[in-house]
Amino acid sequence: MQVFTYSSPRFTPYDDERAGVSESLGGGGPWRAPRATGPLVARLTLPGSKSLTNRELVLSALADGPSLLRRPLHSRDSALMIEALRSLGVSIEEVEGDGDYGPDLRVTPPAELEGSTSIDCGLAGTVMRFLPPVAALALGPVAFDGDEAARRRPMRTTIDSLRALGVDVNDDGRGALPFSLWGTGAVRGGEVAIDASASSQFVSGLLLAAPRFTEGLTLRHTGERLPSMPHIEMTIATLAERGVEVLSPDEGVWVVAPGPIRGREVVIEPDLSNAAPFLIAAVVAGGTVAIDGWPAETTQVGADLIEILPRFGASVRREGGALVVDGGEGLLGGRRMPGLELDLSRGGELAPALVALAALAESPSRITGIEHLRGHETDRLAALADDLTRAGLTATELPDGLALEPAPLHAADWGAFDDHRMAHAGAIIGLAVDGIDIDDIAATSKTLPEFPELWARLVASTIAEA
Known about the structure:
single chain; alpha/beta; UDP-n-acetylglucosamine1-carboxyvinyl-transferase, Chain; 2 domains; five-stranded mixed beta sheet; four-stranded mixed beta sheet; 29% helix; globular
């Protein structure tokens, strides 16, 4: 079995040149997704969860004492969060950690958050939606902006909720980036009603800062649906671990009393959503892929893969601290995989990878419950339909998802659309189809900068077994 990690790859019994790593990374042009040539036998360790890392960074910045984050994610999204918090006066220091995971982070909150700064959100939803309530607690103006694509992401709910809390926000009526707010050093809090149908991050962003509001917060969701509930459950769990109780007296209602947020030492779980393409690779190519450090209990939506992947014909088991997916002979070995209907309203971030897998089925599939993905890094429904259609599939947008009609797939240019999960989807298709050229594999730096190398090594493990 090939064993490697995301930061300090341990890879035997052949070197990088045999693995095809240098060739697959290319020199800045399109990235040719490597084609699998046989069953996989691999085990890997992935970096910390982006969702958990950025939540813990925010809570550490608002805490009543220092915190130590062990095994945090080091990626563009986490770097943007770190720099944003530093600009508000938070001390974040890299300290020696586990060599396979990179440095740990020691976070020391300031006596008072500082305004008179600007925050680059990049394309990170956690930065653009978690930090405005934090910045409102600072003293002075704070300006928010980000990548061009970030200006298309919905932000009106955050902006309107801050105004309802008494914060002065100027967005020139856009309801989107760029905007600025004027922090007074305190936020009144109280009762606020929002429609968070477009993103659970609107709820999480307010809950994370709520203990620091003078009157706490009673938050009510008014929309018909609320996507990605596990992410809200994650937020509530991280608050609970720091001594903050979030009550939910009714569905879509959360109550947080004012009070301290405890500093703590925390070990960040591996990112289970980033595990999705690697585990799906076993379903496509066959063989086994194991992810070390899989938590026994978690609020991460990636844990849903344990129930979802058997519906695609894989077997899933735990071995010690690892999760192992066995794809048998795999689709490339001749195993037949019928299409299916799948509701991903709980975990839309898994959708691009699972849509790519469903695109390889022998009968139609419908993936639903993911209307909110239109407001992610890109309109993921339109982007998936565009890329899959270009590769030969009939992919039709539905009001809340995609319908896939099977067809022979062929070589095609695959657009990443500045979206890490779109790049992952293209890599999955490339396992089974020659000539899938992803235009911007660097988009994966958002949550896993080492993805191209890890993926090439994973696929190359079939060469070692040949």
